[in-house]
Each structure stands twice: as structure tokens, then as C-alpha cells.
Amino acid sequence: MMGRVSRGLAALAVLALLMPAVGCAPARTGETYNANQIGRTAVVTRGTIVGMREVQVRGSEGGVGTTAGAVAGGVAGSFIGGDWRSNVLAGLAGAVIGGLVGNQIERGVTGGTATEFTIREEGGDTIQVVQTNEAGLMIGDKVRIARSDRTRLSRDTGDF
Prior knowledge:
The protein is 36% helix and 26% strand. It is built from three helices and five strands, in the order αβααββββ.
């Protein structure tokens, strides 16, 4: 019986180690770049923020949370039961439940709120960009609009 308890604790430890992997997805902010974005060219224009509103961002379901949860749940569940059949069934149930929980955790970690900015460009066009607002941009602020694989806004410092 003591062996089962220590194996169960080991399974819980695996679960605790795997679930934080869901939060390893890089943040999608205006101030954060992924490694593959370094060295890419961006076309930069200028504009003025003429409107903004908060928007909800639905979290991603990229599979990391589901996979981590399923593995951890399967390992933890496999230590429940008396004979090998019970261990297999509990492992399968743990994998399904862990996958569902991991998926929900991933959606929660990658979702949230952002700001939809409406910008009037110097050329007269009006565009909208959605990103987080770490820079504290406000209506009336002059911004740089950098267009590459994604569009980003930053405060215009007037240095180009």
C-alpha cells in the first residue's frame, strides 16, 4: 500500500511539472518579439490615434495544454486501482480529463483583453490595429506603425 501512495505522489509531481508548460507560449504584446521576428524588415509609417476600445481576445487552442494535461492525467491516473486493468482504465480516464483541463488552462492563459486602436495615418488612410497597451497609448498620441508579419504600434518619438 505504501508503494501505491508514493507512486501516486510521484504522479502528482509529474502533473505539477507538466501543467505550467501551458503558460510557455510567448505573450502577444506590442512590446514582445518572438525569436523568429528578429532581423525581419518592417515598413514604418506614422499616424495619430483617433479612437480606442478594449476588446476580448479568445485564447488559443494550440494543443500544448491538451497534450500536457493528457500526459500528466494519464500518468497520474495509471497509479489508481488494484490490478493492471484498473490502472489502464484509470490512466485512460486521467488522460481524457487531463486533456480537457489542460485545454481550458491554455485558453485561459493565452486569452484576455487587448486594445483596438483606430489610427489616422499621415497619408489620410484610417486603419485599426489590435494589441495590448503596455506603452499607455491614448487618443491623440502620435504613433509609429510597423508592418511586417504583424502590425505593431509604438509611441512616435520623432527621431526619423
